């Protein structure tokens, strides 16, 4: 493709799809790039054979196209490097909208790498899109409303859910948020439906509890749970549950790999899932012409993502010279009140359900924090004793974060472990984040050589 | 793990898991087909040879790697099954 697009949108979930539609409607030449086989992201999950993805405009959509690098050099245009069967090697664009979504925040506990331990997102995909009954007896552990959703789907699939452990205590903070929640009738109705199924099944919903450990040889066979204090530290005697499935859902982490790679400034926002790009009100990052939207810019949910996508689509159209500043201001004025409402709801969820810092105490010295390079908590502590104080330094000493996942699975735990080891001196913010260099995903060397 | 019954699925097809023929359906991921076939652990880790399987289920953790049609280290959670596909788990050798 020799064309230089006005806007390339990376990620075809709710945010990216809306951004692409809006930019195209405003006259931009647009290309939408998606790493999966279908558009829709994690939110618009298609059941086998079914379709429930909102329509997309008439512009090119690349599916199964992994973006492994974004380059600019001295050229004003961005070069987006792709890997995928029958995909162009790169496309060029004047503006970028990154809409890379989020993944379940990985919390390390003893046994978390055993088969049969999976994230909420994984369980929901297998249940809802793949229509698979996972396991026979399950423990659902973590924080947030997704626990209720996954438990309900498990129960409906015939799985016995032994317990739901919600790590946060929801009262009395929950009461102060009641009015915000009441403004979200559809969501409240959904939640009430989940609770009904869970109560009917007799599943205990234990707030202020968490998994301590999963055990088994080739597969989870049992788990222990206990009360945790308000900071997430185990505070009671363990209870044993015989389960063959552990679903772990401690909130979501924004996927900021591409924003990091091209050098967008980040800030630490524990209420929005951790490190997020610094943005203007128009969703523009610290780099002009690069917009970051949706859960990949801070957790806010699908409706918030669509609205942010719309704002970025408008703003990018102005930059591309396809829309006047006045028309843009009119459009954005209409979006902003809706966005404010979503932000308020997102702030409530962030306040009620952020994973607590003390959850790092679920990991023992021989627990893996980095699953790829198999680096344990003990090794990270040793690196700190040897003087490491940032994620970058621990990475250089231990190789944690250098494997296939590029640190996505261990960054949170390693950061917490460093803070824990040097409690009086540091916060997650001081510890920093893993720098990301291309390739963002493992790709064949032959592709890099070209 | 088994398929939920009375669900409309894509056309039936056949894949080979470690040489054994297994039924799967159009639209299924390799991971789902492996689970439905009773295979719950997919590979051993490099260093400590510990069993690993699907964790994130959305292509970001690279834990569910299997060999597909001779190409190694493919993510079972985002790879869709195709008729005649040969899937090898890696319980003996390193991935």
Total DSSP E strands of chain B: 8
- Share of residues in strands of chain B: 25-35%
State the CATH architecture of chain B: Roll
Taking the alpha carbons of the first and last residues of chain B, their distance comes to 24 Å
CATH topology of the largest domain in chain A: FAD/NAD(P)-binding domain
Task: Give a brief rundown of this model.
With about 450 residues, chain A is an alpha/beta fold. Chain A is about 35% helix and about 25% strand.
Layout of SSEs?
The complex is a heterodimer of chains A (450) and B (95).
Chain A: E1 4-10, H1 14-25, E2 30-33, E3 61-62, E4 66-71, E5 78-83, E6 90-98, E7 102-104, E8 117-119, H2 120-129, E9 132-133, E10 137-143, H3 146-156, E11 160-166, H4 173-176, H5 178-182, H6 185-200, E12 205-207, E13 209-216, E14 220-227, E15 239-241, E16 245-250, E17 252-254, H7 257-261, E18 266-269, E19 274-277, E20 290-292, H8 302-319, H9 325-353, E21 368-370, E22 375-376, H10 377-385, H11 391-398, H12 411-421, H13 428-431, H14 445-449
Parallel strand pairs in A: 1-2, 1-6, 2-3, 6-20, 8-16, 10-11, 10-16, 11-12
Antiparallel strand pairs in A: 4-5, 5-6, 7-17, 13-14, 14-15, 18-19, 21-22
Chain B: E1 2-3, E2 12-17, E3 20-25, H1 30-36, E4 43-44, E5 51-52, E6 65-68, E7 71-75, E8 86-88
Parallel strand pairs in B: 2-8
Antiparallel strand pairs in B: 2-3, 4-5, 6-7, 6-8
């Amino acid at each position: 493709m020799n064309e230089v697009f006005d806007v390339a949108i990376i990620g075809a979930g709710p945010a990216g799809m809306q951004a692409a539609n809006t930019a195209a409607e405003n006259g931009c030449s647009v290309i939408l790039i998606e790493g999966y086989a279908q558009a829709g992201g994690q939110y618009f999950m298609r059941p086998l054979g079914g379709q429930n993805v909102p329509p997309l405009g008439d512009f090119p959509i690349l599916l199964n196209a992994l973006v492994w690098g974004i380059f600019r050099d001295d050229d004003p245009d961005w070069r987006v490097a792709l890997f995928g069967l029958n995909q162009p090697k790169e496309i060029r664009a004047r503006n970028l909208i990154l809409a890379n979504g989020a993944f379940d925040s990985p919390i390390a506990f003893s046994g978390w790498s055993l088969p049969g331990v999976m994230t909420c997102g994984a369980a929901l995909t297998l249940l809802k899109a793949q229509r698979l009954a996972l396991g026979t007896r399950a423990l659902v552990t973590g924080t947030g409303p997704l626990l209720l959703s996954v438990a309900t789907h498990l129960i409906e699939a015939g799985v016995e859910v032994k317990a739901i452990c919600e790590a946060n205590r929801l009262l009395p903070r929950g009461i102060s948020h009641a009015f915000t929640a009441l403004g979200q009738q559809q969501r409240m109705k959904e939640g009430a439906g989940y609770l009904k199924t869970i109560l009917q099944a007799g599943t205990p919903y234990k707030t202020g509890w968490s998994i301590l450990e999963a055990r088994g040889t080739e597969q989870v066979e049992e788990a222990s749970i206990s009360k945790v204090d308000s900071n997430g530290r185990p505070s009671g005697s363990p209870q044993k549950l015989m389960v063959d499935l552990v679903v772990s859902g401690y909130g979501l982490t924004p996927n900021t790999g591409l924003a990091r790679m091209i050098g967008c400034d980040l800030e630490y926002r524990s209420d929005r899932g951790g490190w997020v790009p610094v943005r203007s009100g128009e969703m523009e990052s610290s780099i002009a012409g690069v917009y970051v939207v949706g859960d990949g810019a801070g957790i806010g949910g699908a409706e918030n993502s669509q609205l942010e996508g719309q704002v970025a689509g408008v703003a990018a159209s102005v930059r591309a010279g396809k829309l006047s500043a006045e028309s843009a201001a009119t459009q954005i004025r209409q979006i902003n009140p809706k966005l404010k409402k979503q932000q308020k709801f997102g702030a409530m969820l962030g306040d009620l359900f952020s994973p607590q810092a003390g959850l790092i105490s679920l990991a023992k010295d021989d627990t893996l924090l980095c699953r790829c390079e198999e680096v344990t908590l003990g090794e990270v502590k040793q690196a700190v004793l040897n003087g490491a104080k940032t994620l970058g330094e621990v990475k250089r000493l231990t190789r944690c974060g250098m494997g296939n996942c590029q640190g996505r699975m261990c960054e949170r735990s390693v950061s917490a472990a460093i803070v824990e080891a040097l409690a009086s001196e540091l916060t997650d913010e001081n510890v920093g984040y893993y720098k990301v260099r291309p390739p963002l995903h493992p790709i064949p060397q032959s592709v890099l050589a070209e | 793990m088994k398929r939920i019954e009375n669900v409309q699925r894509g056309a039936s097809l056949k894949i080979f898991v470690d040489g054994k023929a297994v039924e799967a359906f159009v639209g299924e991921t390799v991971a789902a087909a492996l689970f439905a076939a009773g295979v719950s652990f997919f590979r051993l880790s490099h260093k400590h040879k510990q069993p690993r399987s699907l964790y994130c289920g959305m292509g970001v953790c690279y834990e569910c790697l299997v060999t597909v049609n001779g190409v190694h280290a493919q993510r079972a959670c985002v790879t869709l099954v195709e008729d005649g596909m040969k899937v090898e788990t890696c319980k003996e050798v390193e991935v």
